[in-house]
Design brief:
It comes from Merops nubicus (Northern carmine bee-eater). This protein is of the alpha+beta class. The chain has six helices and eight strands; from the N terminus they run E-H-E-E-H-H-E-E-H-E-E-H-H-E. The protein has an eight-stranded antiparallel β-barrel.
């Protein structure tokens, strides 16, 4: 039943995923500005994580914000527009450094709770799956089995599985944590030789159109480090 009801859990909490492409010559300036002034933004609502792309993309940052409901987001956006310190110290200086902005609204899938890494200092893998139309009622069970097969290998830590509500639909973002890129590479190699993983992935990819991934490094200001 949890798959047939769609992507959201039994509450109104959702997550806004923001992806910014930064001008190549300004990436260092942008990251420094975020680390210095983001406390002005987090005074208004909860930040889940803020990362810069290391592999799979360049000059790109991803940040995820948590909201209680859509009215909460509206109130936060109104407050930010009227926060002179935030507008003056960050927005006016940061906007010229940004080439492109993209946002999505997503829910955690019903069978996933937002996790945390066992320790600080690792790396995050952000995997985006474009699934066939139909939602979790069509592909949810097979997708969950594929995720669980990877979890059961023990080489990686699941942070969250998000399904889009606004943006490109039937998109699923999965965030994994690993100690190092080499630890991830070794774990992936072992997983691809595990018959249980291979079988679960083979079943899930029947519903897959495309996928891509990024290796992300958390910023100093990120709650998820």
């Amino acid at each position: 039943a949890s798959f047939a009801t769609g992507p959201r859990q039994n509450n109104s909490i959702f997550y806004e995923i923001r992806t910014y492409d930064i001008k190549p010559s300004k990436m260092k300036d942008f990251v420094e500005m975020v680390n210095k002034h983001l406390h002005l933004r987090t005074a208004h609502s909860e930040l889940v994580g803020f990362w810069s792309a290391e592999l799979g993309a360049m000059n790109k940052v991803v940040h995820v914000w948590k909201y209680d409901n859509f009215a909460h987001r509206t109130a936060v956006r109104h407050a930010l527009a009227n926060d002179k310190e935030w507008q003056g110290k960050f927005i006016s200086a940061a906007l010229p450094l940004i080439e492109k902005q993209h946002n999505e609204v997503a829910y955690l899938v019903p069978w996933c709770q937002l996790g945390k890494p066992p320790k600080e200092g690792g790396v995050y893998e952000w995997v985006t799956f474009q699934m066939k139309p139909g939602g979790p009622a069509l592909w949810g069970e097979a997708f969950q089995a594929a995720i669980n097969a990877h979890i059961n290998t023990g080489y990686t830590k699941l942070i969250g599985v998000f399904h889009t509500e606004y943006g490109l639909l039937n998109t699923v973002h999965v965030i994994w944590w690993n100690e190092t890129p080499d630890h991830r590479a070794a774990g992936r190699h072992s997983a691809h030789e595990d018959a249980r993983v291979v079988a679960a992935v083979r079943d899930s990819v029947r519903f897959l159109d495309s996928q891509q991934n990024m290796l992300l490094i958390p910023l100093q200001c990120s709650p998820l480090k």
